[in-house]
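Z., the sequence and structure:
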Amino acid sequence: MTAEDSTTGVNENAGELQFDSEFEDIHILSNAQVAIILQASARQAVNRDEELNEVYRKTQKYVDRFNTMTNPEKEHQELVDELDNLQEF
């Protein structure tokens, strides 16, 4: 897929774009991984008797809309794996 930059008139191929070096060590989360992390933080908030803010609720709604994971047992195992991965960073 190519797009023309309106300021320079140069065609760019999105498949060939490169990020700067500052993004080399970035770990990108999938939508399903974000859903799992949000679920865990919601449970923690409930345990601490805290109310979830509007940004959290909107993010959760967005993630739920596009989340394709439907197996609760797999989700739980992925949560454990992802929390382990996050603690490594």
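Residues 4 and 61 are 34 Å apart (CA to CA). The helical segments are 31-47, 54-66, 72-88.

Let me know what you think.
H.
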